[in-house]
Amino acid sequence: xxxxxxxxxxxxxxxxxxxxxxxxxxxxxxxxxxxxxxxxxxxxxxxxxxxxxxxxxxxxxxxxxxxxxxxxxxxxxxxxxxxxxxxxxxxxxxxxxxxxxxxxxxxxxxxxxxxxxxxxxxxxxxxxxxxxxxxxxxxxxxxxxxxxxxxxxxxxxxxxxxxxxxxxxxxxxxxxxxxxxxxxxxxxx
Length: 189
Description:
It is a single chain. By secondary structure, the chain is mainly alpha-helical. Helices cover 86% and strands 0% of the residues. α8 runs antiparallel to α9 (161-188). The longest helix is centred in the middle third of the chain and has 29 residues, at 54-82. It is flat, with a radius of gyration of 19 Å. The N and C termini lie far apart (52 Å).
């Protein structure tokens, strides 16, 4: 009987593990252990370019913003359909399929350009709590899309309109948090 609830059990287990990690000393030990990685990243080619060539940093940041716009567009495109705001003449599966590849490409672009930009200011962001909140939100967003949203919509999209709206609202909240914390990092420096 429990096998019918594998996803639910896994989700509850991940929440419990995450909460346990957040409340334990292991979180602080992990953070302190990552300091060497951040120090090293400033010495890499990306770190050197990011610190010394402002124009290169600006170009990479422009691509980061293009990726953000593409990611946001795919989220609004697909979540708007789930909420019944637009593209109601197309099936949810069609809209999700059309948004899937651009979403993944935008996410890859954002991660690559984000790593480049972080290397130039690694020690600065290491000490910014909002950076860690953004990384947590980004991890939750990726886990939500690939581990929960896509499987749920693949199975139940056309038959459960209430679930569609719940998934869309949760998605918008998660990705708004990722975007807001990223903007907050920009205001912090």
